[in-house]
């Protein structure tokens, strides 16, 4: 009798325990659903993860330089008697820039002309002694005799002196070696100048280039003719179009490579200006999302997508970043709807509401 009573009491207790557990579980589910229903949906904006060409942007800074920039050098010693240009003047190739006093050069020319006449007279006198040979048909013999007499009479030396005197006269006139603008004028009128002294520079402002330094890790993304945008530091908001003109095949001690970008239209730009270049390097067949869609949790890249009006946490592998968009190598599929706002503190499976623009 006592055993039956104990058994009955045990059955009642077990039933009560299971009943309490079921009730507790049911209450927890109701509380969870009730809590989820009470949490307001987070308003978010979204974008599509697109599979397309991705423009990797390479940023670099440098200085504007002229492609055609020539230094004008004085070619003989003398006094600068005339200066016909000033800085900023536009000159054409071959235009006279300045003149040196040529009075001494003219005197040397006259003397050289007289010496040549004397040498010619000596030659004519000496050649008479070889009348029979000069009247023969042996051209080689005749030429040999003439050269010997010219050398003996001083005719060859007089010819060279005359050419040197003529060159000194020509060097007295300084001409523009190329078309462009006058810059860095270093000598004033009346100055005594020497051979090889730098006079000025002629700069062609119609052909400008920007020389920048690019990281060696990025150089494989750059090729000749590649498009670029040039932004002068002076404050112009509109970029100048450009293209890669040359790539120095050498890495410097800082791990940088010099790249020259030809500026297609440099109106308003001047050599020496600081400027920034953006070189576009298209990457094909990439999944691309706006940069705002990418957040980091515990140092790992995360992109939130939307499923059934709830956020979904996706760990992703990030590729290149161009400042506006990010290349996603893995973690989400193309055409996924990604969250771009209010995602910094967003949780997994949090209710969200898409806000239309």
Automatic annotation (TrEMBL):
<protein>
    <submittedName>
        <fullName>Efflux RND transporter periplasmic adaptor subunit</fullName>
    </submittedName>
</protein>
<comment type="similarity">
    <text>Belongs to the membrane fusion protein (MFP) (TC 8.A.1) family.</text>
</comment>
<dbReference type="InterPro" id="IPR058625">
    <property type="entry name" value="MdtA-like_BSH"/>
</dbReference>
<dbReference type="InterPro" id="IPR006143">
    <property type="entry name" value="RND_pump_MFP"/>
</dbReference>
<dbReference type="Pfam" id="PF25954">
    <property type="entry name" value="Beta-barrel_RND_2"/>
</dbReference>
<dbReference type="InterPro" id="IPR058637">
    <property type="entry name" value="YknX-like_C"/>
</dbReference>
<dbReference type="InterPro" id="IPR058792">
    <property type="entry name" value="Beta-barrel_RND_2"/>
</dbReference>
<feature type="domain" description="Multidrug resistance protein MdtA-like barrel-sandwich hybrid">
    <location>
        <begin position="69"/>
        <end position="198"/>
    </location>
</feature>
<feature type="domain" description="YknX-like C-terminal permuted SH3-like">
    <location>
        <begin position="287"/>
        <end position="352"/>
    </location>
</feature>
<dbReference type="Pfam" id="PF25917">
    <property type="entry name" value="BSH_RND"/>
</dbReference>
<feature type="domain" description="CusB-like beta-barrel">
    <location>
        <begin position="210"/>
        <end position="281"/>
    </location>
</feature>
<dbReference type="Pfam" id="PF25989">
    <property type="entry name" value="YknX_C"/>
</dbReference>
């Amino acid at each position: 009798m006592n055993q039956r009573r104990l058994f009955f009491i045990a059955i009642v207790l077990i039933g009560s325990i299971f009943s309490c557990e079921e009730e507790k579980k049911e209450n927890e589910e109701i509380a969870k659903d009730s809590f989820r229903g009470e949490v307001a949906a987070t308003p978010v904006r979204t974008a599509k993860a697109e599979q397309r060409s991705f423009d990797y942007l390479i940023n670099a800074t440098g200085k504007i330089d002229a492609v055609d920039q020539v230094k004008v050098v004085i070619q003989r010693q003398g006094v600068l008697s005339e200066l016909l240009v000033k800085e900023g003047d536009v000159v054409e190739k071959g235009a006279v820039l300045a003149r040196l006093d040529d009075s001494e050069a003219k005197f040397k020319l006259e003397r050289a002309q007289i010496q040549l006449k004397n040498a010619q007279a000596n030659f004519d006198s000496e050649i008479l002694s070889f009348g029979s040979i000069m009247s023969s048909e042996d051209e080689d013999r005749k030429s040999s005799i003439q050269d010997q007499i010219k050398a003996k009479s001083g005719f060859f030396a007089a010819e060279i002196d005359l050419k040197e005197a003529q060159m000194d006269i020509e060097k007295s006139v300084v001409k523009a070696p190329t078309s462009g603008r006058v810059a860095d004028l270093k000598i004033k009128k009346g100055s005594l100048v020497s051979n090889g002294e730098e006079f000025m520079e002629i700069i062609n402002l119609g052909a400008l280039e920007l020389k920048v330094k690019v990281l060696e890790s990025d150089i494989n993304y750059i090729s000749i003719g590649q498009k670029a945008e040039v932004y002068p530091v002076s404050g112009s908001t509109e970029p100048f179009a450009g293209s890669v003109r040359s790539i120095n095949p050498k890495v410097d001690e800082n791990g940088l490579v010099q790249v020259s970008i030809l500026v297609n239209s440099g109106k308003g730009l001047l050599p020496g200006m600081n400027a920034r270049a953006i070189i576009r390097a298209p990457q094909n067949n990439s999944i691309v999302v706006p940069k705002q869609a990418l957040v980091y949790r515990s140092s790992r890249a995360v992109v939130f997508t939307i499923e059934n009006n709830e956020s979904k946490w996706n760990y992703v592998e990030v590729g290149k970043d161009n400042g506006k968009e990010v290349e996603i190598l893995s973690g989400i599929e193309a055409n996924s709807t990604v969250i771009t706002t209010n995602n910094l503190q967003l949780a997994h499976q949090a209710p969200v509401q898409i806000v239309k623009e």
